Amino acid sequence: MLQLPLVVTVQVDLVLVLITSLAFLTRLSWLSYPNAVVFDEVYYGQFVSLYVKRIFFIDDSGPPLGHMILALGAYLGGFDGNFVWNRIGAEYPVGMNVWSLRLLPALCGALCVPLGYLLALELKFSHVSALGAALLLLLENSLIVQSRFLLLESVLIFFVLLALFSYLRFQNSTSSSWSRYSWLLLCGVSCSAAVGVKYMGLFSYLLLLGVASVDTWSLIGDRAVSHLSVCVQCFCRVMCLLVVPALFYIFWFYVHLSVLNHSGPHDQLMSSAFQASLKGGLSRITKGQPLEVAYGSQVTLRSSASQPVPCWLHSHKANYPVRYGNGRGSSHQQQVTCYPFKDVNNWWIIKDPNRQELVVDTPPKPVHHGDVIQLVHGMSSRLLNSHDVAAPMSPHAQEVSGYIDFNISMPAQNLWRVDISNREAKSEVWKTILSEVRLVHVNTSAVLKMSGMSLPEWGFRQLEVVAEKTFKTHSSGLGWTVEEHRYGTSQEQKDREVELHSPTHIDVDRKISFWSKFVELQAQIHLIGNLVSWGVAHLSLLAYQLLAVIYLLRRRRGFKDISDGAWEQFVRLGCVCVGSWLVNFVPFLLMDKTLFLYHYLPALCYLHLLSPTHRRVLHVCILGVLLYVFLCYWTFCPLTYGTPELSASQLQRLKWRDSWDILYRRQ
Q1: Is residue 618's pLDDT more than 60?
Q2: What is the pLDDT of residue 472?
Q3: Which residues form a coiled coil (predicted)?
C-alpha cells in the first residue's frame, strides 16, 4: 500500500557542485575573447569549415571524431564555413558566433575538473585529497588555455579521464546487479572516443586494458565465483572493452564519410573508386562514361602504387637516350612513364591484336579477365612494348617503351594479358574504376608497374615504368585502374587527336594549405603552466617513486609499514596515475616531431591526481601550497584570458625565466 507522506531523500556532494561551478566559470567566462584566430585554431578551423560544407578531406595527424566534435559546435552556432583560416590573429567577422565555435572544447575542459575529483575518490583518496587534486586541475593555467579555444587537448583529456573513472566505478561497485556493466560499457565507448579524437589516446586505452587484464585474472582465480559466472563476466569484459571500442571507432569513420560526400582538396589522394563516390570532382568527369571496357575504348590508367601522389600511365614523343650516364645502352624507343598530372598524353586505346580498327564496335565487345590486348598510345600511335632490355633506373627490371621499328633485330613484343586481381568470376569483364588489373607481358611474363624512381632530365623528372619479372601474386603496386573512359569513334589519327583533346575532364587542385607560421599577435594569449602546481606535481611523482622503493625494500625484509589493503591501493594508484603519466609522456620522447607544451598536458593531469595523496607529508602545509597555486594562477590570468591588456613592461615582469618566449605586440 502507498503510504503518505511521500519522502524523497537526495544526497548532494556540495564539494562536487562547487568545483564544477568554478570549473565552468574559469573555462567559459569571456569565451568569445579574443575575437581572433588563436594559435592552432588556424589549423583545426580549416577542417571545421570543410565539415560544415561537407567537403572531403584527410588529416594525417589523427582520426576524425575530434574534428567532428569541433564542427558540431560550429554548426550549432550557425557557422557557414566561409571564413578563411589563413593566418593566426585574423579577426573573426562580426556575425560569426565565436562563443559556439569554442563551446564544446570548453565544456570538455570544465568537466575534467569534477571528473578528476570523482576519479580520485574511486582511487580511494579521502575527500580532502580528492578536493586537492580537483583544485590543482581547476587552477592549472595551461589546461584553461587549451580548453578555451578551438583545440582538441581538452576533449582528449575528458574522454581519457571518463574512461578511467567509468572502469574504476565498475570495478569498485559492490552491487551484484548486472546494471554495473553500464559503467564498463561507458568505459569502452569513452576509450573509443579517446582514440577517435587523437591517436595518443591509444596509449591510455592500452594501459586500461592492462589494468583490466590483471583484474580479470584475479577474477578467474577467485574460487568463490562459479565457473558460469566467471565465463559470463569475462565475455562481458571482452565485449565492452574490445568489441564495443572497435565498433564505435569504425562508427566514427562511418559518420565522417557519410557527412563528407563532396569532392575536395584531398580526394586525389584516394583511389579512383573512392573519388567517383564523391559529388563533384572525378564524379563529374566519370558521370555517364561506359562501365565496361571494350576493344576500341580510350582510357587513362592510374597506378595503384601512386600513393599519396596520383600517377597515370603516360608517353610522349621523346625517346630513351642511346646510352645512359653509366654507359648502359637502351632501345632508344619512345619513353613510357608515369605522370602525376592530368594530360592528353595519358590516353591509351585498348586494341584487339587480331584487327586494325581502333574504334568500338556496335555492340561493343568487352574485354574479359585473361584476354590478350595491345595498348596504343592515343597521341603518338605507339604500341606499349617491353623486351629484354634493362630499365633506365631499375636495371633488374625490363624497359617499357612505345615501340619504334628501327629495322634492327629487336622485334615488337607488345602483347599484354589482362589479369583482374579483384575479380569475382573467372571470366569477369574489365570495369571502369571498379576493376584493378595487372597487365602481364605475354612474351616474358613480366608485370607492368611503376617503380617509384624518378627519371633524369632527359625523362623530364617523371616516374619510371618497368616490367617486373619476379613478383608475388598479391604484391601491391602492380595494379592499374581505368579512371577516365570513353568509347573511341575516330579511326584516323588526326581525328583521334581532336577527340582526345576534347574537354572530357577537369583539373582538380590538389594543393591545400594547412596552417601558416606565426605572423602577428592580435591578443596577448600565452600557453603557460601554473609553476607552483607543476612543481608540486613533479615533486609528488618523485615522492611516490621514493616511497615505492622504500616500501618494496622493507616489505622484502619482512617489514610492513602499511596494511595489505593500503599496499594494494598504493600499487593501483601507481598503475593508474604513474602508468598513465608514462604512456602519455614517453612516446613523445621517441617521436621525431616538433613538441609543444600542450603535448604534455594529458600526462600532467595524472600527476595532479597523484599530488594530494602524500597527505602525511603535505598535511601541515597543504593550505599554503594551494594558496601559492592560486596566487600563481591569478598572476598569470592576463596571459591565460588575454585580459586585461598588459604593457610591454608588465609582460616583461611576468617573464620569470630567460628561456620563456613572451611575444610583444607593437602598438
Answers
A1: no
A2: 45
A3: none
The burial of 645, by beta-carbon neighbours within 10 Å (0-12 exposed, 13-18 middle, 19 or more buried), is given as exposed
Q: Show me where the domains of the chain are located.
A: 37-256+530-654, 281-488
Residue 442: partners with Cβ closer than 8 Å, 6 or more residues away: 372, 413, 415, 416, 417
The grid cell for 458 is: 632527359
Q: Could you give the CA distance from residue 629 to residue 613 in angstroms, rounded to a whole number?
A: 17
- Reference 64, options 228, 210, 195; nearest CA is 195
Question: Is residue 451 within a helix (H) or strand (E), and if so which, with residue range?
Answer: strand 447-454
- For 348, half-sphere exposure in the C-beta direction (CA atoms, 13 angstrom radius) is 28
Contact 456, 323 (CB under 8 A): no
Cα–Cα nearest to 112, from 45, 164, 184, 188 = 164
pLDDT of 545-588, one tens digit each?
787 787 777 777 777 777 777 777 777 777 777 777 777 777 77
Total-model pTM: 0.63
The answer to whether residues 284 and 307 touch, using CB atoms and an 8 Å cutoff, is no
CB distance 316 to 335 below 8 Å:
yes
Nearest-angstrom CA–CA distance, 434 and 226: 54
Per DSSP, 411 falls in state -
Helix axis angle, 181-197 to 65-76, nearest 10°: 90
CA distance 434 to 411: 34
**Mean pLDDT of all residues in 185-192:** 95
